[in-house]
Structures are given as C-alpha cells and as structure tokens.
Amino acid sequence: MFKKYRFIKWTLVFVTSLIIVLISFGLWFKGLLPHRSPTLETTVVVDLPYLSENIIPVRGKVLAVVTSTDRIGNTDKSTGYELTELSRAYYVFQANGFEVDIASPLGGKPPVVIDDEDMGPFDYAFLNDEIAQLKTSNTIPMDDVIAEEYQAVFFVGGKGAMFDFPDNKKMQSMIRDYYESDKVIGAVCHGPAALVNVILNNGHRLLENKKVSGFTNKEELLLTSDAESIFPFLLQDRIIEQGGNFNEGEMYLEKVSQDQNLITGQNPWSTWAVAENMIERLGHMPKFRKITNEENAVKVIATYHAESKKKAKEVIKTMLLKENVPMSRELIAKHAIVAAMKGEVGGFYDMIGLVSFAKKCEENKEKI
After folding, report:
1. From 275's CA, which of 27, 31, 92, 223 has a CA 20 to 30 Å away?
2. Which is it for strands 262-265 and 256-259: parallel, antiparallel or unpaired?
3. Has residue 21 got a pLDDT over 50?
C-alpha cells in the first residue's frame, strides 16, 4: 500500500513539474515575439508608398478569381478564398498600372478566410480600401465575365477552390483561350485547381509537360490529416496525374514556377512573386517594392534548409545589423511549430534558436 501511495506521489510531482515547465516555456517563447503595432489595423493605401507614390498610368486590366465555396465538402469546416493571396496580388497589379476586377463562380460576396497572424500592412489596407471592398462584396459571376477585356487572369487560393474551380466551364474556356493566345495565366496555392481539367484545342491537357507549383500533399496533410477523404482530390496528385511536372519546394516557403505564360505558386508565401512574375510576362519591369518582413523571414528559413543554421544566422545579422531591414520573428516561430508537428525535434530547437538570435540582434545591435 505504501508503494502505491509513493507511486501516486511521484506521478503528481512529475505531472506538476511538467505543467510548470510547459507554462514557463510558453511564456519564454511568447517573449521572443515582438508586440504587434497598435496602428497596423488602421493602415490605408496612402500609408503605403508603393501604392501612393510614383503612380503608373493605367496599362490594362487583370481579372482575379476567387472561390464561392464556404464549406469543405460535407464537413462543417468553413473555407473561402485566402485574403492575403488576393490583397497582395491585387496591389501588385494596381501598383504596376493594371486595374483589377474580381470574379467568382457564383458572383456576389464570396466567403473569405482571414488569418490574423498572417495579416500585414497591405492586407489591412485592403480591408480599409472602399473600392477593393466594393469589388469583393460584388464579385462578377464567372458566366458574366467578358474575357476579352483582360490582359491576364489570376486564380486566388483557398481550400474552396478545390470544389468549384476544376469543373467550371467558363474558367476552362477562358484559360484555354488565354493560354493559346499567349495571355498571362497566374495561380497560387489551391488556385491551380482551375487548371486541372483544361483541354486545349489540340486535344491535349493544358498541364501535360508543364512545370507547375501548387499546394503540396505534405502541406495539405500536415494541416488537414483527413484531406484525402474530404477533398475531391489532392492538388499535387491531380497535377501529376494529368501530366504536369510538379515543382515542389520546402513546406510553407515561397516557390514559383513559370512555363511560358503559365505562372504558378506553391502557397500564400508565393503570392508576391507570382504577381510580379506576371507583370514581367506582361512586358513590364515590376515597380520597386520594399521587401516585407515576412519575405525576409522566408529567406532566413530557406537558407537554414538549403545550407545550415550558421548560414541562417549570418543572413539574420546582415539583414538586421547591416541592411537594417525588418524581419518577421513570428514566421520563423511558426516554422518551429511546423517542425514540431513533423516530429523534427532538432528542427524545432534550431528555429527557436533563430528566433532568439534575431531578438538579441535587434536588442543589442552595438554588441554583435
């Protein structure tokens, strides 16, 4: 009996100690992250020099297409288009002289997914932009789109696109005609779902032998373990099945593929690059844009994966101490969580170490 009580006692001690350790780690981890600016949510277009200065005259029009689907299959999981994938591309097109119309399969006000942790100045400016909000609240039904009015089309991601993009006949005919007339076609994340069933006039699938990026199986299944049962297909699998050369990058980092006039990106972090590559394909040098703190963090993480933790620290030191450019510690912290979800203990601690190092660089510039 005494052995039994001794076991209970030490179990309670262990559990209590574990809870204390976890709470302490959580508080320490939170302390590594910067406080969000209280003015961020009030950002408007005039606050952003990229949009308010050196305005380029109108060169033409681009159509952005978002999903109308608000639920994932037969589940109760909500979905819609990803705000950041629309807002960032929208402003790249606008800053480079292209008016942007927004369409959706059903028209009207489509469902939107807003992840507060991913929101930056451009995203909040978009929410505070009366014209942009009027367009997103009154999207053009795809059946009413006059394809000849646009120089390019951009398919925005969001899990809902997996359901109402692949079999939309108007999208298919527009993509086919644009591809064959050398107009620019862009898509990001789940947006390439619009491409999977397109048949060209020669009878071949659009995706045959095309270099394409999109949301990967690994990215999908890490976040949605039952994706294979609730989606009609996994995007990477379907692109490969239809003859595409799927170009896969690191999870949740920028990856863009271009095959002639077809430009695709792997995930939300690819949006800036997809839109700017589309501008180049349209025949224009993209307007200068200061790289965002999130993009700088992506560079750090990519360096870690491609080279080493040491090299990643060198990139951090260069950015923060020499170039004096901003870098998102939050995004690196998210990749620490991704590593933990993947069971990569070493990767988790390395990422936490990079976050801690970045904080020290910012706080003690003169000592490093």
Report:
1. 223
2. antiparallel
3. no
